[in-house]
Design a protein that fits this description.
- There is one protein chain.
- The protein has 75 residues and is an alpha+beta fold.
- It has a single domain, classed as Ribbon-helix-helix fold, CATH 1.10.3990.
- Helix content is 60%, strand content 19%.
- It has helices at 20-32, 37-50, 57-74, and strands at 3-9, 12-18.
- It has a two-stranded antiparallel sheet.
- Helix 1 (20-32) crosses helix 2 (37-50).
- The model has no long low-confidence stretch (mean pLDDT 95).
Amino acid sequence: MKKKRSLSLHGHRTSIALEPEFWAVIEAEAETRNQSLAGLLAQIDDQRVAERSRSGLASYLRVWVLKTVQNRQQD
């Protein structure tokens, strides 16, 4: 079951629905980086825009989590 979060990204309200497992990785990464959840999500969204990704934010976040977990395993 997806868990929906509402937050502001660059002054605009948005909602993101992800499975709890994805939220757990994102929250842990925000804590590791000493960032707020909204701050990390804004940074990831900026990256998505810079890459001109056609993916929506939720899909992009799922791929970001996968890459983050893979990178941790390589370290």
